[in-house]
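tokens incoming
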């Protein structure tokens, strides 16, 4: 394994400073400048490495001797779902020189198992869904020196994700008109909110996107309390937390957050259009954010007076592209009657 206590002490970050690219095609659709924060080019393929990398470094400093993380795989998504959290935890553990156990649901493809093992991880298959795998991870974390890595529910995770906004501040200088992001468990939303507060951009609106059937945040916003969805029925399975983290709901009282839901057809259509426009293939969870532009939702918010008619550049967080390939995209489009 790579890494040493001396290397850990240096605090080398595990994520990269990702490109902020202007999209001519999306800008034309939106009627305002759209900038893409390309988290899909992180070493592990998604933004998750920011928070999980930071978390793992901090617990390593405190003497953690073994990491454990439950990650997700969804056979009904008809994909080899890479498990963004698991990949980030495995990558971080390898860099730190600490053993790691990734717990996945039974039925996970051999391709996923081998990819994680290629990062040096031990892989255990337990239960049928993430919730059951997570119970096993929590049980393992009771061992002396072991630490459970939450995919989204820890202040250190949010602190790590806040680095994304620090990069925006360094590159833009002035606040964007809005930040568009996807919500799964709520870790990215909590982290971006923390980052906005850190750089003095508390007034910047956040457009929080979900797909129907994975809309635990929107359900919580509507109810004014945490809501647990009975099941995840959306194809955007990496948005598939049944209950959003409590901090995400708290953020709605401190920041201007618009919770919006799009249909699976809109998210998958956005993935295809984005591939055609920008030559980047992203997963449907990311398609939810892109759909804020392609579906006209941004312009609707302006027409309703909820966003200013004249906006500064809008930043869309391109959160990841792990759980998709061209064949799977075509299968999804066929499933949704788009081919």
């Amino acid at each position: 394994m790579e890494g040493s206590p001396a290397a850990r002490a240096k605090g080398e970050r595990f994520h990269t400073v990702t490109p902020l690219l202007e999209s001519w095609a999306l800008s034309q659709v939106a009627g305002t400048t759209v900038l893409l924060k390309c988290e899909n080019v992180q070493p592990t393929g998604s933004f998750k490495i920011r928070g999980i990398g930071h978390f793992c470094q901090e617990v390593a400093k405190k003497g953690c001797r073994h990491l454990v993380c439950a990650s997700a795989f969804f056979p009904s998504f008809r994909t080899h779902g890479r498990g963004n959290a698991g990949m980030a935890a495995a990558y971080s553990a390898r860099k730190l020189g600490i053993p790691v156990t990734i717990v996945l649901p039974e039925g996970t493809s051999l391709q996923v198992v081998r990819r994680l093992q290629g990062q040096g991880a031990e892989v255990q298959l337990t239960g049928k869904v993430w919730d059951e795998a997570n119970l096993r991870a929590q049980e393992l974390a009771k061992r002396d020196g072991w630490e459970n890595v939450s995919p989204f529910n820890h202040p250190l995770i949010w602190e790590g994700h806040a680095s994304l906004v620090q990069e925006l501040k360094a590159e833009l200088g002035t606040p964007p008109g809005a930040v568009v992001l996807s919500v799964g468990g709520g870790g990215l939303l909590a982290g971006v909110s923390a980052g906005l507060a850190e750089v003095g951009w508390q007034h910047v609106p956040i457009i929080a996107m979900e797909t129907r059937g994975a809309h635990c945040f929107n359900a919580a916003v509507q109810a004014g309390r945490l809501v647990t969805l009975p099941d995840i029925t959306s194809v955007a399975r990496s948005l598939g937390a049944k209950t959003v983290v409590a901090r995400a709901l708290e953020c709605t009282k401190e920041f201007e957050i618009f919770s919006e839901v799009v249909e699976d057809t809109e998210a998958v259509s956005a993935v295809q259009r984005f591939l055609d426009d920008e030559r980047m293939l992203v997963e449907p969870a990311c398609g939810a954010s892109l759909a804020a532009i392609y579906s006209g939702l941004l312009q609707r918010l302006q027409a309703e007076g909820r966003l200013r008619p004249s906006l500064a550049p809008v930043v869309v967080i391109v959160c990841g592209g792990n759980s998709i390939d061209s064949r799977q995209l075509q299968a999804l489009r066929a499933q949704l009657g788009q081919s």
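note: The beta strands are 20-23, 34-38, 66-70, 100-104, 122-125, 146-148, 178-182, 206-211, 257-262, 314-318.
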